[in-house]
## 1
Amino acid sequence: MTTSSETKALVAGLTTKPFKEKRRWTVGEIVTMAVITVLVLIVATPVLYALVNSFRSYAEITADPMGLPTTFNFDNYVQLFQQTDFGEAVLNTLIITVVTVVLLVILVPMAAYGIERVGGKAGRFLYLLFIAGLMIPFQVRMIPLVEAFNEVGLYSTLTSVILVHLGGAASFGVLLYSSFIRGIPMDVEEAADVDGAGRLRTFWQIVFPMLLPATSAFVITQALGLWNDFFIPLVFLDSSSAGTINVAINRMVGLLTSQWQLIYTGAILAIIPSVAIFAGFQRFFVKGLAVGAVKG
Amino acid sequence: MSATLSAPARTRRRSRQIRIRWTMFGFVVPALIVYLAMVIVPSLQSIQLSFTNWDGIADDYDYVGFANYTDMLTSGRFWNAVKNTLLLGIGSAIIINVISLGMALLLDRLVHLQGLFRTAVYLPALVSAFIVATIWKYLLNYNFGFVNTFLRDVGVPDAARDWLGDSDIVVWVILFIVCFTLGGNTTLIYLANLQSVPQELLEAARIDGAGKVQVFLNVTWPMIAGGVTINVTLALIAGWTIFDQVMVLTSGGPGFVSETMAFFIYKVGFGEYRAGFGSAAAVVLFLVVLISSAATNGYMRKREIQA
Amino acid sequence: MRIAMTRPGARRALAVVATAGIAALTLAGCSGTADADGSAGDKTTIRFLYATGDETWNSAVDAIVTAFNEQSETTEVSLDPLPAGSDYATAMKTMDATGNWPAIVDMRDTVTYINAGKLAPIPTEVTELLSDDAYGAAEDGNVYTVPYSALNGELGMNIVYNKDYFEENGLEVPETYDEFIALLEAIKANGDEPLATAAGEVWPSDQLWKPLAAPYFAEYSDEGGFWNAVVEGTASVEDLREPLQELLDITNEYVLTGWQSTADAQTTTLLVNGQAVMATSSAGLGRLNDINKVNPDFNAGMFIIPAEDGTINVLKNSVTGDTAGGLAISAQAQEDGAEYDSAVEFLDYFYSVDGANILEAQGWLAPNIKNADQVTHNTSIPGSEDFFGLLENPKLKWYQNDSSSAAFSAFNTFFRQTRIEMQDGQITLDEAIEKAQTEFDKTVDSAS
């Protein structure tokens, strides 16, 4: 495993622009850019289709699914929030995402650290226990969990969704953080040699900041996964809850008519936050992924 | 170090070390509790439930031994679901990794604006699988979907098929939609892997006269082989549980043709109130995941060592 | 933006505001106590709690309550609308927990509240206005809920067709099954697509199946229904061979390609764009409303596939007084005599011919009252006169077919998927019958 100084060098090497940037633009490069652009546009077709249709009325879409908008009004956007509980669904999704991520960041790095430092057979056992979770598909624990939440009266609450996600993400988190922590030499902590609560402070003040690349990659992958999740909220939130964004959109695919104009609008609205946040934080994210990728 | 200490000091150090270890264990406890409660315990309960005929709502149930398993293993519906699960799982894992590696290679060639294109390539991954599938469902409609309308307009009306209703091709269409992405995370990870290949090695190979392909096979590939193994394994695990697209696009239809095990468990165990039976199917799915992950990992590690 | 106010302008504005303020205070004084359920002057005010979400229902409630308030001398109904779905059931629980029951409630979770004694029995003066099979008694013999809309069973499961096309081609609504097949043939001969159906979400596959199977189901209506007979052994899935064959033949010969992946909602698009002349539907007036919204010029019509002898067999609703939803009077209102009387008065009006007419005028299907023949149906939407015509069709025959097994719905889903498999050509008719029978024996039979 690489040491922390090597890590720093690696990160620096991976995230600064290649020194050859002073080179001229080659034809090959331009062709590559064109190819990438075309590919991105092709793959983005469904999203573009949704965007176009979010400006059309129900009648327009149903009569002519392939037509173009006649006017550019935001009626659908307004209608979505006024006539359905989409607004509440967005709030729910936000709550689930933020709370789960915060809890994960509090619990998981600490746990991975503990596992690595416990060491010995116990440490190995704990590590394998957590990693095993990666191979347990959600379906295996789904039915008993529903029943359990029902019994404690937490069924169809956001809490149940949050807890389920916490369990599921713990495995990946431990995997990710463990490999990072192995690269951190113990002498840093020995230097701050204190017992008990001091250890806690040592962890948060010294070790945790060194795990920042891992944390950023973890936070973004988990946040994205939570925001876009469909299955778990579908199972744990019934009609007494407004659901999450995906669940709310799914309900708009109705019995005798589907509210297509609202579905497309909801889809666009669901994508905007992800794009905005990713565009803003992509530097940190890539850095984290880069280090994680090489270490893994 | 302890050899240079006196005996009482050694004991003090030992007990302090033990205390430290317990403190460290304390660090693990909160996450451990959640993990046990949310993952381990329910999984064990599933195994127990798989031997019952519980319906998910009633208060009591009977033990039926292996009845659920025999029912399942003798039902064509189950094996069809297994076939689809394997197809979608393995197919998507391989195809997505190939696409991701390809996109990473393309991105790697960029000297200017790499950040911009990196973001652009990642954007499709920001949309949830559910939303993508919902929109595709409409695009693939036989009579007025964009795909068929386009084909008819361009002059190849015979190519227009009932993409989601033709039982011969529907599973392949679902696979296509699952893989219709530019790779997202996986692409960026491969890009990082590629960029970690030391420049000197590449230069050396080129100076020796190796062509682009040879450089890739002999220098680049061995260096990223480890990453490939992990990515393929993770993609496989994700592939076994593909649900969103199946549910949205076909609900397992037409008939039972496109059901996968993950969907089957939800539909039957959950939706049709056969919790015992569903749990048995879940256990079988778990075994499939376990065996396949171990096998793939073993296979790829071997190739890694060879590389 | 600042609005410059000249001095005269300012004074005028002030005067207006002052007058408005005085007027508001006066009116406020007249509107009685802030208490919703109380006495305001002479009239008893009662609250009517209901779920929104269906626009037609919202305007119907509004209209009938306004009309009632105008003509009542003793009662004032005030509306208490709640968003449907997420909040309604919870709001009811909260309302119960805080002891804040309105007099009239649109019920959910009926059994629970009956058992908890929260509902008052509906008096006979109200129930005798309704058709006998429009309501049911609970276990204790009392009626606790009454319907707020017509219970027309599966009358809404029918064929919607393009009237203009029929006219242009000299086609007529079929009166026997053979005429129906001939109709399909004629359209096909024209080079057009006769029938669109949907199976994309599985449940719409009932739309073509049920009318074909109805004549066979109807035979067992008096004996407790077909499916219960299968449990008892006096019938089997094999008895459905003929309608299954019909289903298969029609699918192969006359149904628009792509039905396997078509969603029910998309049949509107297909009709309106002329991609099919007829389409199956289970939404009754709802489908007609939808078509009208998309293309107001489309001339739609409706009919139900008749049996060989011309009978129109339609499944009727089962109304079990324990679980039925509908309007209820709260026990809390009963304790307050005046509120109870007001609630009864409102319900009397609701089920009067006047009340029914008001509901219908909004496009809402009024509940089945005994004086239904005096009610004017809203036939403004193309095709709706056909729908109401079905109700009065002499060939209409109701039948019942409720399975008493809780495992039936799981079997039903399996049966639907099996039929789709058969229609899609993945399995043969014989295999489908065998598969369905085996599944039935395994799930429904063993559970009963």
Note: The longest helix of chain B spans residues 7-49.
## 2
Amino acid sequence: MKVIDVNKQVRLSLLKTVELVLSGVKFRLFRAAVTVVIIALAVAFLMTMLSESVIARNVAVAINKQTGPRRLLVYWVSRLTQPIQPAELTKELASVAPGDERWAELQGWSKLDDEKMHALVDVARQQLIYDAYFDGLADGDLRAIVGRARGEEIYSYLASPEALEQFKRQLPSVGKEFPGGTDTFESFIEDWGRTQDDRAAILAGHSEATRLFHQNVLGNVPPHLYLAGADESLLETITALGFHLTADELAIVSRQAGLTADADQISSMLKAPSLRNALTSKLKKESATDVGPQELFSFLQSDSGTKWFFDELGRIKDKIRDYLEVAGASKEIPEEEVAQLEASRALVFGFDLPAETVKEVASASLRGRHLAEVEAKVAQTAGLGWFGFSSKTLALIIVSFLVCMVGIVNAMLMSVAERFREIATMKCLGATDGFIMVNFMLESCVQGLAGGVVGAVLGLILGVIRSWWMYGWIAITNVPLLPVLASSSISFVLGVILSVLAAVYPALVAARLAPMEAMRIE
Amino acid sequence: MTKAAQTPQPADNETDRPVIIRTVGLQKLYQMGEIITKALRGIDVELYRGEFICVMGPSGSGKSTFFNMVGGLDSPTSGRVFIDEVDVAQLSAVELAFLRCRKIGYIFQTYNLVPYMTCLENVTVPMAFAGVSSDEARNRGMNLLKLVGLADRWFHKPIEMSGGQQQRTAIARSMANNPSVLLCDEPTGNLDLKTGAEIHDCLMRLNKERNVTVICATHDHRLINMANRIMWIRDGQIERLADRSDVTVETGAIEGEENE
């Protein structure tokens, strides 16, 4: 009776196995290359999406910084001259705290004490939550629970007990989950009703301040123009009316207002027919309607353009002097042109900006427009869900990975089939099933590593190129290092996992092969 | 671990020669759907240590199935196969691998060398599976290559060698772990007469000098000429099992020049 002592069967060391695998891969380089390409494609696809969305996020942040001044101007012009909308007020109340500039403003206008202000803030915060709930509902649902009331009306409507009863009764029929309990909501309704007067006080105080601003400060001057020439005294006046504007903010606003005012003046020159016609032929456009502010600003960006502009202005002024201011001389030119010169007279003589300013303003305006365009584009992509992916993109990526997995399984099965005899021979020589399995898994691991690296690099390049195509040069300068590295690692690891997972089935097939296949005696 | 079967001493041993492989009532059935094919219908045979035995039979006779059984490559449906007194049917997959690695050497008609390894590396593959250190493996490998006359070609890849040289490499590989049995499946099937002769000499030497049992499936008359016993299999049973001396074998030589 003999017994086999299997402990003597030593497992092949990992190093040797890796050596074996590598020499095998080198031998079957072409087949391995196909698998590597498949993996690289899947990884590159994922990486392109990832890097695009990561870059878009960063671009959005960068743009936000650059459009700061313009936004500040818009904010202050509106705050100084327009009444605050109720919805705006709610949002503002929800986000202030004691010590804020805005808190001081609101308190100043309404003369409310701290306790009442806090109450307003709490109510506003709650209101935002309920607003979000009601906003998302369909009309049918809304009609069931709050009748015809919409927006803020809902809360005043629900103050009546019958309406509240109906609301509570119908609420379960609405699909969307109501935030919090109905008890909390009821006490909110009470609070809301109570604080309405305080809110009105704030709005009234602010409204009075804007009226005074219009009356005492602006007069008939447009706000942009006025703010452009801001100085300390203006700051004092504004502060006296209850607005908390800091000197720094005013400096930024004033500069931006100046730019806007100048840009307006330049683009209004297009209303002068003589100048517009001259520009149309200079730019070789078909008709005057093709020449708008955009074209004018692009033209004025260069030194030659600005020079031509001022020369042309001079020429028109000369013509006006020669033909319109000398009695009888206007008979020497066609009537059409007389009309044009007449119409242009005020604008042309009223233009008072120097050449450097014109150039500067033109470039700044164009940049501003470009940024606004890019901002709009980026807003569509950045900030969507998971890593910036819409669920559609996510589904696409998952499908692409699955398809690639199928492709890899196919390629590996072909490889196994090709190597039937080799595998069977190995088994005859003493290889265990486990060894064969490890062999194939390692092979696909190596392929996964290679494919992952190639794919990640390729994907990054493609992502950067696509971002540049969509957003311009701002994309190149705003590639964020750490998120990109993180994305690369994720894509790379996913590529390796994909490859290893795909190899499981073929490796099993190979491992289960009977050594009999090697013996073909028939 | 394995439970080796209790084997009674073979009662009807014709001679007192040690038995290396023994089959008792060996049967193999293949089931394909509803059709059951009886490949082996009960084979009882004893193969002695150190003998050279040729197995012959027409295709479909169960010759290859018998080979697989005896070589530890397959398990019988019923009956027993004892290789060196170990019941093959009781072994697990890992134990079978062990058996194949150390007790049995294989030589194939198509050589079956690993194409991306050199001659020496091919020879040392079974040693790697047996846990032999690389230095010792290389030494043993070179010695084996010297034995078959390929010592100066140790760095060649299979694709750079002729058929006869590849087969000799395969023979060296089969001897890597000093097996007791050599299983040869048409070793000279793909070779011409002249190179075939090298193989014969090789096998002959191994059989005589190292007392390795050689079990050959072949149609080559020169190999049959060298055998101790010859076995014919037909229809899943042993048709005839005879000593060499009881059989007439005619081998001829082709006069004139032979091509490479």
Note: The radius of gyration of chain A is 37 Å.
